[in-house]
Structures
1.
Amino acid sequence: MFALLASLALADDRFFLDAGPEQASLADLEARGAVHGRTGALVVALDDPHALDGDPRIARVERRRGRVVRVVPAAGVDDLALARDLHGRPGVAWVNPDLKLRLRPASIPNDPLYPDEWHLDDTEQGGRTNGIDINAPEAWETATGAGVTIAVIDSGVQLDHPDLVVTPGHDYIDDDDDPTPGTDSSSPHGTGVAGIAAARGNNGIGVAGVAWEADIYAIRLIGGDSSTSDLYDSFAEAVDAGADVLSNSWGFYGCEGVPSMATFQEMFNYAEKHGRGGLGSVVVFAAGNDDCDNSDDAMLDNRYAFVVAALEWNDVRASYSNYGENIDISAPTSVLTTDMSPGGYGSYGGDDAYSDGFSGTSGATPVVSGVVALMIEANPRITAKQIRTAICESAVRNDLELAEYDKYGWSPYYGYGRIDAAAAVNLVADTAPAAPVLTAATEAYPDRVFLSWEAAIDPDGDVTEYVVHWWLDGEDGGASDGHVTSDLRYDLTGKVAAGDVVHWTVVADDPWGAGETSVEGTLTVLEVPEAPADTGEAPTPSTCATAEGSAAAGLLAVAALLGRRRRRA
């Protein structure tokens, strides 16, 4: 009997992680320290928006972004039991309990101080010449982050800091729209992260961030209780607010973190598929500071997470930096940055708006976020996947004796090596081809219908093809398939008939995608005129003037013929 009761209790404690059969125990997660209870609600993804209609066990359904909803069970209904029952229901993609989560910043603010911003250019700052900086000044020759937004999902950001440009997002701790930091020990953290990524440069005060003309979108997620749905909402909110980069300098307690729940997969998918108009918002994550293998951390194991390990000034792994299969790249930490004023970590040079020695993988992560912002300004058409690939391809392989790089150039301690801002920006920098200028006539006969244009102006000279879209009057232009050609014209002969009115545009492509679209052209296909009837009689001049004109024309023709003959002679 006791064994039966124990097995029932265990079953009641479990929930499905995603659409598959794998389950997790709430008690196990609480023992790890990453979870400390549940909100009593569920996070559900619906393939059919009406799949839960009329279920008496549900008190209300709260719509979220995308296909995700938050389900509040009716009074007396157990949330885990309901979650298990809804699993596999038609129209329901997956169900997770809305767990209470414990997040912590991934920094160690009491580490030794390092002078100035050596991580940006150590040959100019602080006298260090060991080559471990990220070559920021050379990258700034191409881009400084202008027009790019970095979402700092953290403990909040001081909104009135003199060296930051901040747009306030949501506060998921206090549930309001003021992400000002709280008063707990983690409160200065987000302000420090924001400064490393995007403190305003060239303004005569303070410090410069890696992307010193980028804007910050602040979300407060650390400093109190947050939940599974809060994590999803914070990602989706940042994406919908136009964030190009999502910077996450936080993690769970311990190296195991939490299992791979569908909610987490969905929020990464949302950023990748909906961010930047479908190009993807880049999600940058701290590797963590427990000096352990984080390969089992489901948050970092997502293929869209770009995971950052920490480097000290001597170009080796910070002793606390986690390692393992999830590491993608490494970046400097223990750096000078903005600080909450008052109430921050300390002061630098007597100014409590700045603090030195901001360390941990928390400090390394916004370095990478800033480099991503530079790359996006340098090439706005680049995809999130292309950004991740380019950073890895352009990285510097460091600590060659101990890094254990494999044949692909990847190390479990450094990923693909130390990030190089200049190399990454130069690798992807590209200007889109200008809109082609249309040269086709506005009228044509059915036996000869051509659309033509001038070669697109492209500063990079890498136009690969032209894509023509055409449609007839009354049709939807957006429904037209693109017709690809390497020529400067497209033949419509045989595809249209007399009386048709053709609308068309053309765009030049280069290796990074489409350039600017031309203005819309219009071409009318004319009826072929009928030939006059042949009467068999020679026409008779009606007036002397006409006859004289005909005679004159004949004389001119004879004179021209004689002239040609003389030249031959």
2.
Amino acid sequence: MKYFLVLTIALISQLSFAHDANYENVIAKDWHLTNGKEISGFFFMCKDGKVYLEQEDHSMIHFPVSELVSEDRQFVKEKMKKIADLNKKLELDKTADSTPQNPVKNSSLIILFITVAALGGIVYFKFRKTKLRYIVPVIAVGLISSLFSFTSQNWKKKLSTTDPNTMDLAFTPFKPAINTFWDNNYFYVESKGIPDHEMMAGITGWQQQVPIPQCYVGPNAWSIPLNPVIATTPVPVNTVHFIRGALAVAVNGVPIFNPYTNAGVDAYLAGQLDNFGGHSGRADDYHYHIAPLHLYSQQTNTLPIAFALDGFAVYGSVEPDGSPMSTLDINHGHFGTDGVYHYHGTASAPYMVGKMVGVVTEDATYQIIPQPQASPVRPATNPLTGAVITSCVANGSGNGYILSYTLGGQTYSVDYNWNPGGNPGPYTYTFNFISPSGTTTETYTNGFAQCDIVAGTSDIPGIEMGVYLYPNPVKDQLTIELSNDAIEKDIRSMAIYSYTGQRLFYVDHYANKINTSNLSKGVYLLKISVYNKEITKKLIIE
């Protein structure tokens, strides 16, 4: 009896308890730069040494933290600490522990506990007259504690590490409309947020927003964690959390939002979604609100159709091993046969993610960060009661759309387009509204510049390995050397592009030296056309 008493007390001593959550409101302030300039905006986030602010028109601006005066730099530091503390303390459900449990971990603990208890009992009674009997409970506690530590931390960490090459297979069918790349921490997806299927048709609760391609590229690309961590307490996807911004990105590059809108209603049930489960938001950014199950018409059914921003994949009605979908837990997913957690998309609520299983960081407005931002061109509009959208098709010039809708038995439309005002420079966005009250035109001359998806930011093997850039990083003049002189006569053109796809330099021949003194600091792409191939080199201006 003493043996089991010592063992029980030792196990109980391993338990710990969580703390309550605490949240703050959004803080608005005037920001002062070292050059004397003053900017008014709401703190959004701080990432890679830059502070991001949301202005009153919902546009985002950013600049290095080092350009702030000391008081504002301290404010940013304190704000990020508070946000980090907020997420560490998060505990939303005190009545039920919905943390996913790995069955391998639980069964291992049970088997080991029974085995150690049985063997320990035998040893104890056999050597009950010697001091050896006191060693048994100590060894048992050590073994069980070691297994618990391995399974709950190292085991989860190991199983949650994602192979980016495997992830990339899910995105491959949708290239080159999207581009993917990765580092040690994140898998990045560049897109314009526009699918290859028809948008907006079927919406009966129209907010008068229209789809405009966005620039989710470069530093504004989608970031999916490659080393997701299981959260102690999953955060629910509801009318409070994740109302702003996306909680996942589909494999076609379209973001996926909370099923609930910022008004707290189920977007699908309210008739606000098109035939594919999407619509345009307040920034005229197209996104889904439910699982994009239709992508399986272009995707293998054993591959994901999306990835949540906590790093875990989303599948449809089939498991990764090809078997039918197993029973889902309260988070709308489960551990697979390989021990890795994943979600499933269904046609009914919660549609895709019931609770965010992986650790994520929310900003003060309960939006997941980091994540890219859309660029609004015009103020948000109001609902048009009774309107039913019938189609949204690209115009003949490829620089806009014609959205048609019916209202009161009549057909009306919004014919809109965008045109560059210079390269680089702001774009002009023109909206022609043909409505019951007549035809009106709205023009916005300071819109964001449209971008292109530039695929292949890594060097291409083969003949391309014979192209050398130096110095790289470069300041004023770049030198391009060829290892094989025969390549020179085959070069058709050379161009430098920004990460947003803007062409900043072009020649129709081989150039040994290029003046780069007029380019700002940053990352660029040098593209060299050779025959039917295109060599892409990453260029850094310092």
